[in-house]
Amino acid sequence: MPTHLTPKCVVLLSGGLDSATILAIAKSLGFEPYALTVLYGQRHSVEIEAAKRVAAALGAVEHKFVSVDLGQIGGSALTADIEVPKDRDESAMSSEIPVTYVPARNTVMLGIALGYSEVVGAQDIYIGVNSVDYSGYPDCRPAFIQAFEKLANLATKAGVEGNPYRIHVPLILLTKAEIIQRGLALGVDYGLTHSCYDPGPDGRPCRRCDSCQIRIRAFESLGMVDPAL
């Protein structure tokens, strides 16, 4: 049972492979993890159901859902009626910031996580950003995380009173295969997760979007089949 002596952390949990891994990492390091799923106007609810499964399986102390509809501003294939790119090779994925980038998403989600952390008394926030595997998203880079951590400690009561926040990004410099290996070592069941940008009506992964392709190739490199398939 958690006690007041156990440090708390907030884990941003999307239901994807990376966020499941960081929840397992936080738990393994002795934190009481408070999972936070942001309903940001994503077109598909299947990842929200995956987040519920992952939080339950990995033992989150609490699982909070907060809505902020970025779909109202659009600008992304994940929130607006814009076609998701399919069947791209690695060079195409890394050539430019993709249309699946959601404007300001990680800034908004970290801001909500910061508020939640202050309320529950957590000084540590975990987010599964990764700057290696072709995503090309500007808000997944180390410079962004460092800048947000500085902002967090200037903008909060806890920060200015000498209780600094720490933004943890344990996956930021790992390949997808290395992330999977780390999660498997911690007992993560990746069959519970969902990463597809454009699932079918039955919620099954499309196997063709960038996210599916990166997952499939990573599992194949480890001699495995993606259990989500």
Radius of gyration: 17 Å
Q: How many DSSP E strands? A: 5
Structural class assignment:
alpha/beta
Number of helices: 8
Question: From the structure provided, what is the oligomeric state, counting identical versus distinct chains?
Answer: single chain
The rounded distance between the terminal residues' Cα atoms is 35 Å
- How much of the sequence is in beta strands? 5-15%
Low-pLDDT segments, ≥5 res:
none
Mean pLDDT reading: 91
Biggest beta-sheet profile: 5 strands, parallel
Shape: globular
Strand order of the largest sheet: 3-2-1-4-5
The percent range for helix content is: 25-40%
What is the element string, with H for helices and E for strands? EHEHEHHEHHEHH
Descriptive overview:
This protein has 229 residues and is α/β, with parallel strands linked by helices. It has eight helices and five strands. It has helices at residues 17-28, 46-58, 90-93, 105-120, 142-155, 157-160, 176-185, 210-221; strands at residues 8-12, 32-39, 62-67, 124-126, 166-168. It has a five-stranded parallel β-sheet, with helices on both faces. β2, α2 (46-58) and β3 form a beta-alpha-beta unit. α1 (17-28) runs parallel beside α2 (46-58) and α1 crosses α7. The radius of gyration is 17 Å and the shape is globular. It starts with 7 loop residues before the first strand and ends in an 8-residue tail after the last helix.
